[in-house]
Amino acid sequence: MSVARQTDLVPMLEGDLDWVAAREAELHPHPWTRGNFADALESGNEAWILRRDARPVGYAVVLPVLDEAHLLTIGVLAPEQGKGLGRARLAQLIAVARGRGATRFFLEVRPSNEAALALYHSAGFEAVGRRRGYYPAAGGSGPEDAIVMRLAL
Ligand SMILES: CC(C)(COP(=O)(O)OP(=O)(O)OC[C@H]1O[C@@H](n2cnc3c(N)ncnc32)[C@H](O)[C@@H]1OP(=O)(O)O)[C@@H](O)C(=O)NCCC(=O)NCCS
User: Fold this and answer.
1) DSSP line for 79-118
2) pLDDT in tens, 38-90
3) To bridge 62 with a disulfide, which of 46, 48, 57, 150 should be the other Cys (CB 3.0-4.6 Å)?
4) Is 106 within 8 Å of 71 (Cβ atoms)?
5) What residues does ligand 1 touch, defined as CB less than 6 Å away?
6) pTM assigned to the model
């Protein structure tokens, strides 16, 4: 796997935060706020704008912890979904983590998020656990568990 091309993944900057928070609010019923993304940037996470042909098409935040990487959030704009971008950019995020010496990549996902689950399975992630009541309710029901997934790098 080649390392990300500079035009595909670019570091998220403070000037991107309004755009990212607005896109996040379009994609998630319980979105991260602008402040959450600002905190993620300040805390030294790997925060990225995902691009296609030099246009922003999404964003992702990865928390590096020793030899692990944790995908905290990833989003592809709705009109750009289903075109292979999530798969391609996730592969590039994995290559970046591997390149800095990470040996395991973790993430959490809602069991109801079929698109994300299918994407992660196809990228080689395996379910390794469950966090009870991790997510606020998506609809009218109670909180939703998280499936914890892991990829050996
Ligand atoms: C999850 C997400 C990042 C996937 O990005 P994407 O660019 O649409 O994904 P891709 O086009 O690369 O598709 C990759 C695989 O994901 C799965 N997938 C994508 N969209 C899907 C859908 N609507 N339904 C079911 N599976 C889907 C498929 O397995 C697909 O592989 P295939 O094309 O070979 O069948 C995107 O749907 C998204 O941003 N969703 C909203 C935010 C979100 O849920 N983020 C993840 C939080 S854990």
Assistant:
1) GGTTSSHHHHHHHHHHHHHHHTT--EEEEEE-TT-HHHHH
2) 999 999 899 999 999 999 999 999 999 999 999 999 999 999 999 999 999 99
3) 46
4) yes
5) 27, 74-76, 81-87, 109, 113-116, 118-119, 122
6) 0.92
